Amino acid sequence: MKEKSKYHLFGNFLTNHLLIFFMILLINVLLYFSFINGFLFPREGIVNKSENLEIFSRKVFGDEYIEFLKKKKHVHSIINAPYNRIIILLIDSLRFDFALYDPNYSKEKEKDETLSGQEKQKDEVKYFLNNMLNLHNILKNEKKNSRLFRFEADAPTVTTSRLKSMLIGTIPNYMDLNENFSPNENIQDNFVEQLHSNKKTIIAIGDETITKLTRNITKKLVYESFNMFDLYSLDIKSKNHFYKEYSLSYWDIIYVHMLGVDHVGHVKKTNSKIMKNVIKNFDILIHDIIKKIKLEQKHKTLFVVFGDHGQMDSGDHGGFSADEIDSALFVYSPLGFMNMDKNIDSKNLVLYDREILHRSSSPSDASLGPDNNTRGKESYIRHHSVLRNAHRDKSYFYNVKHTKQINLISTLSFLIGSTVPFCNIGNVILDILPSAYKTNTIINIGEKDNKKKNTQRYNKNQSNIYYDLLDLHYIAELNYANLWQINRYLNEYEKNYTVDKNENYFLIKNGWKQIEEKKSCFFKPDKEFIDNEEMLNIEKESYIEYINKMRNLMQITQKYFYFIFSIKKKSFIILSFAICIFYFLILKLFYHYSKLNYYHKSITASSLIFILIFLFIIVITFDFFNGNIYIMLLPFVFLFFLVFHIFSKNKYKDISRFFIYSKLSLISNLFLDEDLITFKGIQHQESDYFHNYNNRKDIYQKGSNKKFFQKFFGLLKCLLIIIKRSASKSASIVFPNIFHKICCFISIEKKSIQIIKNNKFFIFVIVWSLFLMSFNYIYSENHFIHLILIVHVLSSTRTCERYLSYQFFRELLLLAALIINMSVSFLPSYFVHDKEKLFLKRSVLNIALPITFYFFSILLINCNIHKLLRKKIKTTMIVGWTIQFILVVLFLQKINDHLIFWFPPIIYILTFSLIAFVLLRKNSIIEKEKIEDSYQKIYEVSISFFLILMSALQLSLIIYSNTNLSVMVFFYMTLLFFYFYFISMNNSRKNQDINNVKLMWIRENRNIDMFINSKEEIYIKEKFTVNTSVKEKFYLKLEEQRESILDKCNYLNHSDITQIQVYKLIRNISFFYINETDFYILSFILLKYSFFLTGQKFVFTNLPLISAYIGFNKYVWPLSQIYIFMHVFFPMLFSFIFIIYIFNLRKIMIMESFNEKDFYNFYFYPLFNFLFKGFFLLCVKCVTSLWVAFYLDFHIMLHDYFLPNYFYLSSIVITYTVLSMIILLITKSIFLR
What we know:
Elements: H1 2-36, H2 53-61, H3 63-71, E1 85-91, H4 96-99, H5 108-111, H6 117-121, H7 133-141, E2 146-152, H8 159-168, H9 191-197, E3 202-207, H10 209-213, E4 219-223, H11 233-246, E5 253-258, H12 260-268, H13 273-295, E6 301-306, H14 322-325, E7 326-332, E8 349-353, H15 354-359, H16 385-388, E9 395-396, E10 400-404, H17 408-416, H18 451-454, H19 464-496, H20 503-517, H21 519-522, H22 533-566, H23 570-595, H24 605-621, H25 634-647, H26 661-670, H27 674-677, H28 708-734, H29 736-758, H30 760-770, H31 775-779, H32 781-798, H33 806-825, H34 842-860, H35 871-893, H36 903-919, H37 936-959, H38 966-982, H39 989-1005, H40 1008-1011, H41 1014-1023, H42 1028-1048, H43 1054-1067, H44 1076-1093, H45 1119-1153, H46 1159-1190, H47 1194-1197, H48 1202-1231
Helix pairs in contact: 1-48, 2-3, 7-13, 12-13, 19-22, 20-22, 23-25, 23-46, 24-25, 28-29, 30-46, 32-33, 32-44, 33-38, 34-35, 34-37, 35-36, 35-37, 36-37, 37-45, 37-48, 38-45, 39-43, 42-43, 44-45, 45-48, 46-48
C-alpha cells in the first residue's frame, strides 16, 4: 500500500504539471495565431469601393468638364482611354538583371566545356544573363514604343503579398505572408473589381493565386502553384490557353501568370542551364506577342510584362534584399509614348540612352535616379558589368528607369478606362503614358523608313509646342484624379483610425488646398489652347509647375502612408503588456509554488469542468479573435483559475503573498552559498560515505602527494600566501585609511560576485535576451551563437579547478569541435540547403552515414546501463533498426524510382512505431532482477529516451536527404562530445566530505512522509557518520538563514523555508564537474545552437522548401508540411531528447552514488525545474523580440530579422512546451506502470 501511495503522489505531481504546461501551451498557441493572422502588426482595412469611371470622373472634375471631354474624341483623357485591351504577363521571380542586356558578357563561355565547376563558382559563367535578346532588340530599336523599368517591390516578397499589394495599389501588411498559403476571404477594392464595375472582361490564365484574391474574373483557366518540381507543364498549358483566347475578341484584359523562372530558381538555382532555357522561352513568347500586337488593326493593345519579385542566387525570396525586391517591368505599346519634358521632376533614371547624351550636354539632375551602389555590393549588381560600373558611367543603349510596384495599377486603370481602387496610394507612371493626341491609324513601328514619321506630329497645322501642351494637360488630368482619390482615402482613413499628425500630414493638407485652388485654371470646360508660341510657353510653364506640385505631394503622401501603416495599434501595447504580465506570473506561480510543495494535491472534477469551459471559450472565439481584442484577456482567466486552485487551501486569506514572491526570490538568493559549499575544517573520516562510486577515481589523483609538479605548485601557493599577508599587514600600518577602503571594496566585490553566481541563470537569461536588441546580432546570430557556446564552455571549465586531467582533455576536444563548427559556419555555402559542406561528398555520405548509424546503435545498445534491456525488447529494436537501415540505403541509392515515393512515409511510420512500442508497453522493458527495485523506474525512463534517440538516427537521413547530409556529421559529433562533457564526475575526497554533510542535513529536515519510505531513511541515517564540529557549523549557518528569511517574510512558515533550503542544497551538491546551473545554461544554448549547426537561419528566405518534396516531385498535403517542419525542428527535437537523456543519466549517477531514494527532491522537482527554466528563457527572449520589433521602423522589421525572429521564437516556445508535456507524460506513464 505504501508503494501505491507513493506512486499515486508521483501521479498527482506529474498530472498537475502536465496540466500546467498544457494551459501554457494553449495561451502561447493563442498568441501565436494572433501574430500569424496580423493581430500584432495589422494594417487597417477600408472597405469602401470606388465608383465606376463615369461617376468618379464627375465627382473629381464636375459634370460640365466631363461632357466637354466626351466631345474631344481626338484627344486622350480620363474618359477617352488610349487602350481598349491590355495583356499582362506576370513572370514569377523575374529579377531585374534577367531582362537587362550585359554587353560585356559573352555567351560563348557557356558553350566552353573546358570550364571547370570551380570557374563557374567564380561567376565566370552566368547562365541567367543575356537570354532575352529579342526584348533587348525591341528596346533598342523601338525606343518610342517600349520601356524597361527596375520594378521595386515591398517586403515580404512572396507572390500572394506582392499580387495583393499591386491589385489594390497599396503597401503590404507583413502578415500578408500568411495569405501565400491561405488567402483571406475579405477582399478589398482592387483592380479586378474595378474592371468588372466598368464592364470589362477579364481572363485569368496560369497560376491560381489571383482567383483567391479577387471575385469577378470572367474566365478562369488556372492551376495549383505549389508543385515546385513541375518546371514546365503549367507554363505550357498557360501558353496554349493564351493563344486560344487571344484569337477571340470578347476580352479586355488577359492576365497570364507563369511560374517557370520561380520554380527553376527554387529547384535548380539561378545560375543553371535550365534557368537559361526557361528565360529564353519567355523571350520568344514576348517577341511573338508583340508581333501579334503589331498586326492588329481593330484594337489598341498595351502589353505589360513584369516580375512580382526577384530572387536570390539560391532561388529563395521573401525578404528585403535587392535581389528579392528588384524585378523587371517591360511595357510595349503600338502607340508612341510621349516625350517627357525634362523640367518635370521624375528622378527615376537608372541608365541613360547614350544617343540622347550625345545630342545634349548632360542629363538633368531632376532625372537622376537612385544609385545602384546603395542596393548592396552582394546583390545581383555584382553579376552585371553595366550596373556594377553605373556609378562611373550610366550610359546605355536606351533609357532604363525605376518605379515602385504600387504605381502600376493606378496607371493601368486610367489607360484602360477604369477607376483606381479606393485604397490605392500609387502614383501614375508618366513614362508609359501615350501621346495625348489620337491618330486615326496605328503607326506601323519597327520599319526603318518610318522612323522620321514617328518623331513628327500628325497635324502640320499645329506647332510641336501645342502637342506638348496637350500631353501636359493629359498628365495633369490623370495626376489630379489620382491625387484626388489618394486624398479621399486619407480622409476616410482618418475618420476611422487614429493617424499621426506630423509635419508631413500638414504638408499634405496645405498642399492639397493649394492644388484645389488652382484646379479651375487647368480643368475648365471649353478650354482651348491658342497656337501662339509665347502664350503656349507661358501655359507650358504653369502646367509643369502644377504637375511638379502634384507629383511632389503624391510622393509625400505615399511616404506618409508608409509611415502610418507601420504604426502599431494600441491593442499591440495591451497585448504586449499582457504577455509580459502572463510570463511574470507564470514564473512566480509555477516556480515558487512547486518549490514549496503546493502541487501535490490533485486537481478536482470541478476544476476540470472549469478547464473545459475555458477551452470552449477559446473554440467559440477562435474565428473572431483576429478582430477582437478581448480574447487577449483569456490569459488572465487562466491565471484566475490557477490562483483559485492554489489559494483555495488557504481560503483566500493570503492572496497578497502572491505579489510578494519577488521579495522572496531576492532574499533567498542574496544569501551567499560560498559558506555552504566550502568548509576548511572538514577532514577525511575513516567511516562509511554516501559516495559508493569509489571505483571510478580519477587516475590523475592516485599518488598525488608523490607528484613533483603538485608539490612544486603547492610550495608556490604557500609563498604567495605569505607574501600577500605580509603586504597587507604592511599596508595597514603605513596607509590605514586607504587600506580600510580597499578592504571594504574587496568585501563588496566578493559579495557582488557571489550574488551574481547565485543568480547566474537569470542574469544569463537577461543578458542573452538583450542581445536581441542588436540588429547586428540578429543578422549574424548564426555566427554569434557559436561564440556564446564556446565562451560558456570556457567559463564552466574555469570553475572546475582541474587541469592536466582526463576531463580537461575532454573539454579540449569539445572546444576544438565547437571552433571547427564556428569556422565552417563562415563559409557562404554552409547555409545553402543543397550543398554538402567542406570536402564531404554526397555519394560517400549516402553509404557511410547509414552504416555508421546502424553499427553505432548496435554497439551502444549492448553497453553500460543499456545491458539491462530485456532480450525480446533488444531483439525487436535491432530488427526495427535493421529494416530502417535497409530502407534508408535503398532510398538514398535510388534503387527503384517507382517505389521511391513510399520509402520516406514508411520510414516515418516505422520510426514512430518503434517509439510507440517502447513507450506504450504495459510491462517493463528492463530486467528487474538486475537492478534495485527503487531505481527500476528511473532506469527505464533513461533507457526509453536512449531507444528514441537511436531510432531517430536513420530518420534524420531521410529528413535531410533532399538538402544536405553533411550537417548531420557536425551535429552528431558535437552532441557526442557534449555527452562526455556533461557526465564527467568530480570524485575528489574534498567534495565527498562536503556532500556528506549536506546530505545528512537534507535527510534530517525534509518531509519524509511525502515520497520516501521512512524505514529506508532511518537505515541510511544509522549507517552514516560525519565530523561533528563541521556538522554543527554547517547546521548553525542554515539555521541563521532560516530565521533571517522568516523575519523578513513572515507569511512563510518553517517548512516552506526548509524546503527552499533543501532545494538550494541539492542544487549545489558538487558531484559533477559541470554544476546544475551550467548544465541548464549549456543545454538551452545547445537547443538554439542546433538550428544553426544544421544550416538553418531564422529568416523566411532560408526555409528549406526543397525538403517538402522528399520522395516525390510534387507538393502533397499534409506530407510536405510535415517534411518541412521536421527539417527545421528536428535538430531541436533530437537535442531536447538528448539533453533529457543526459539529465536522467546524471540523476541516476548521483542518486545511486548517495543511495538516495527521495525521488521528489532529487528527480521530479529538478526535472520540472529544468523544463520550466528552459520555458522561461525562451519566453523572455520571445517577449524581448516582440518589444524590440515594436519600436523599430517598419521596413527594418520587414528586413527578414526582427519580426521573423519573433515568429521563430514563438514557434520554438510552442514546440518546447509540447516537448515538455511529452517528457512529463512519458515519465508519468513509466513510473505508474
